[in-house]
């Protein structure tokens, strides 16, 4: 990517952020749906699944030229937020 001004950089970031929000919203829909299939809170937390996702996105990041530490931090934060959301959904379904 080449830019000739900070405004172009910011415009690109804004566009990418809009796309990311849409994708994250779709991921949220999947998390909400997943809550219906899980028996208990331990199944929602699923540390083995979390680690598989982290391992996968680290490989994807390396292939894309992104430092793996960055994607791991982003995903651990996002997964934590979605686990909280899914726990809420699971609680609501259990009542």
Blueprint of the fold:
Elements lengths: L5 H30 L5 H5 L1 H18 L3 H27 L1
How is this structure best described in words?
This protein has 95 residues and is mainly alpha-helical. It contains four helices and no strands. It has helices spanning 6-35, 41-45, 47-64, 68-94. Helix 1 runs parallel beside helix 4 (68-94) and helix 3 runs antiparallel to helix 4. The longest helix has 30 residues, at 6-35. It is elongated, with a radius of gyration of 17 Å. The model has no long low-confidence stretch (mean pLDDT 95).
Radius of gyration: 17 Å
Helix-strand makeup class: mainly alpha
Instruction: Report on the biggest sheet.
Output: none
> Strand portion, in percent?
under 5%
Mean of all residue-level pLDDT scores: 95
**Bulk shape:** elongated
Low-pLDDT parts are none
What pattern of helices and strands is seen along the backbone?
Answer: HHHH
User: How many beta strands in the DSSP annotation?
Assistant: 0
Ends distance: 51 Å
- The number of helical runs is 4
Portion in helices: over 70%
Summarize it.
The chain is an all-alpha fold.
What attributes characterize this protein structure?
single chain, 95 residues, 84% helix, 0% strand, elongated
